[in-house]
Amino acid sequence: ELGGRGGLISSNGAAVHDAAGGLLHHRPLDPGCLDFLLYDAAFNEVHTNLYRLDDWLVERPEPYLLQYHQESGFAYRVVDFADIEPKPVLKVFFFGDHDHLKELEAHVHACCPGRLATTFSLHMTLEVMAAGVSKGAALGQVLDRLGLAREDVIAFGDGMNDLELLGGVGKGVLMGNADPCLKAALGHLEVIGTNADEAVAGYLDQLYFSNQAPVA
């Protein structure tokens, strides 16, 4: 069971924890694919990041990335990838120019056909997980444990890594600041305000604590 009604889906669906922090599910990268992602020369011009169950590893600092983790307190640790202990790696993400990352995405699938999943959480971050991993797939496992159907779920999202999640629930809602590519792919969904406007809180307040229907 999910230790209460809460849970956490992380690393784009590669791991699921219950409300008490217990690990319910994880699907790491295949070691052969991981070696390719770490050492293939095609990735020399981008910044490589490893996410494991309890840490974030890099080989050189990239202070720009730390701004996305100021509230969580979760920051990278600088190491030599060749010296890290053998633990499961949930995802690798590459930070760099978007056009170059799109070329690398094609290279990833050409070199490891059918073995990897890719997505962009931001335009400058190409994220790579095991094939079949997504937030939407992980949500399905959570719902099975809770005895709920996808039709019972409202989901909010703003990045391309939310594509499967938003498209596979009873009601998907796009943030006003969502990636234009996500809006184009899911143009039929409702669009609300931005994260800065606390639009999700306002939407839920109207839904559960007033007699008015939610508004954009």
Features:
single chain, alpha/beta, 6 helices, 3-stranded antiparallel beta sheet, 216 residues, 6-stranded mixed beta sheet, 12 strands
The helical percent reads: 25-40%
Radius of gyration: 18 Å
How big a fraction of the residues is strand?
15-25%
Let me know the average pLDDT.
91
What is the count of helical runs? 6
Unreliable residue stretches? none
Q: What is the 3D form?
A: globular
Taken in chain order, the helices and strands follow as EEEHEEEEHEEHEHEHEH
N-to-C terminal Cα separation, in Å? 35 Å
Q: Tell me about the biggest sheet?
A: 6 strands, mixed
Determine the structural class based on helices, strands and strand pairing.
alpha/beta
Strands in their spatial order, largest beta sheet: 6-5-4-7-9-8
Descriptive report:
The chain is an alpha/beta fold. The protein is 26% helix and 25% strand. The strands form three sheets. A six-stranded mixed sheet has the order 6-5-4-7-9-8, covered by helices on one side. A three-stranded antiparallel sheet has the order 1-2-3, covered by helices on one side. A hairpin with a 4-residue loop joins strand 2 (15-18) and strand 3 (23-26). The chain is globular. The model has no long low-confidence stretch (mean pLDDT 91).
Topology:
Blueprint: E1 7-10, E2 15-18, E3 23-26, H1 31-39, E4 47-52, E5 56-58, E6 77-78, E7 89-95, H2 98-111, E8 116-122, E9 125-130, H3 135-146, E10 154-157, H4 163-167, E11 171-174, H5 180-185, E12 190-191, H6 199-209
Parallel strand pairs: 5-6, 10-11, 11-12
Antiparallel strand pairs: 1-2, 2-3, 4-5, 4-7, 7-9, 8-9
